[in-house]
Amino acid sequence: QVQLVESGGGLVQPGGSLRLSCAASGFTFSQYTMRWYRQPPGKERELGASISSGGITTIYLDSVKGRFTISRDNGKNTVYLQMNSLKTDDTAVYYCKAYNTPAWGQGTQVTVSS
Fold first, then answer.
1. What are 20-29's pLDDT values in tens digits?
2. Burial tier of 88 (Cβ tally within 10 Å: 0-12, 13-18, 19+)
3. Is 6 exposed, middle or buried (0-12, 13-18, 19+ CB in 10 A)?
4. Alpha-carbon span 6 to 38, nearest angstrom
5. pLDDT number for residue 43
6. What pLDDT was estimated at residue 21?
7. Which segments of the chain have a pLDDT < 70?
8. DSSP 8-state assignment for residue 22
């Protein structure tokens, strides 16, 4: 079955950086668009970034454009989210997901605070 394991979250000061990873298994990773979602405390889950199966096309939430970069390594079945210039509003649990599949990982907590 589809398994997604996110890692790389933590506590960082405003202006800092983090790199999230998501290791995928149980499906043909290279054939799927992959997405990073996030759920801020007390709010709905929202789509943060998306990358096409071949890594050519990327889409970003307006509030993260220019600061976050989504990438993937199809040889390692892994999708990444490089987050720079972090803001307190980026505090959330971050999840990865394969497009058009139901499975979610456990998420990784990102806290941006001084």
1. 999 999 999 9
2. exposed
3. buried
4. 12
5. 97
6. 98
7. none
8. E
